Amino acid sequence: MLTTIRHNLKKYKVNLLNPIDISLSISSSKENVNAWYLNYPKIEPVIEGDYIGSVKKGNSVNFNNIYFNPHAHGTHTECVGHITKEFISINDCLKTFFFIAELISITPEKQKDGDEIIILKSIKKALKIKGVEALIIRTLPNKEDKKTKQYSNTNPPYLSEEAAVYIREIGIKHLLIDLPSIDKEKDGGKLLAHKAFWNFGKKQRLDATITEFVYVENKVKDGQYLLNLQIASFENDASPSKPILYKIK
After folding, report:
1. Which residue among 36, 149, 202, 222 is the one 20 to 30 A from 130 at the CA level?
2. How many CA atoms lie within 13 A of 183 on its CB side?
């Protein structure tokens, strides 16, 4: 199914029958990707007295409760409400869902203290396309264990404040990354990259989002894509999400 999209005086051709799903799903497996010191998600039948919401247990339908945290248990998209005192919902901030995006691959720079940081120089070197609305950062090495990794207390790589400022200043509205956070795991609550990207405390970017815990397979080449950023209708600072890429012909 080929379609032509006109956007900012340019034409883009994509095949909607060739989606590239870069989301990580939520399951009740102990191998579900995890962060922020929480247990794995639970998906289990409702039990009320003799009632069990499971066809295997004799019910006519499967009727499950799901317990999870969007920030800890899979691909999620968040808004500035993640770091504000006032309640701001991702469902109110993300109102359009298709964007021209660039995928880049970056090896974080090892620091003297052992931290691995995505620095401004690396971002500038990797970016090739001007005027995109979304940026997807794939960190290297890109091993499949990202799908199941237990990130708590591992001090994963993160984005420098300087790099986050630059990404904001070049007009990126939607930042996607294959890590549990764009900030350092334990930073004393500074959240420098989050605050820089959303311009926190100034003219906050209510229409800008951060998507964490994506996974982009190695066979997907760096370059320009059409991004469909899908969320569930949660009234919360973050929602589980399903970002889909389409190669632009």
Report:
1. 202
2. 19
Give the pLDDT confidence of 101-131 residue by residue, as tens digits.
999 999 999 999 999 999 999 999 999 999 9
Identity of the amino acid at 221: K
CA dist 39 to 35, 64, 73, 148, 222, Å? 9, 18, 9, 13, 34
Predicted confidence (pLDDT) per residue in 38-90, tens digit: 999 999 999 999 999 999 999 999 999 999 999 999 999 999 999 999 999 99
Token readout for 232 is: 């569930």
- Please give the single-letter amino acid code of residue 58: G
Contact 238, 90 (CB under 8 A): yes
Q: What is the CB neighbour count within 10 angstroms for residue 212?
A: 23
Under a CB-based contact definition with an 8 Å cutoff, are residues 81 and 234 in contact?
no
Which tokens belong to 160?
A: 């420098």
- The residue extents of the domains of the chain are 2-25+70-247
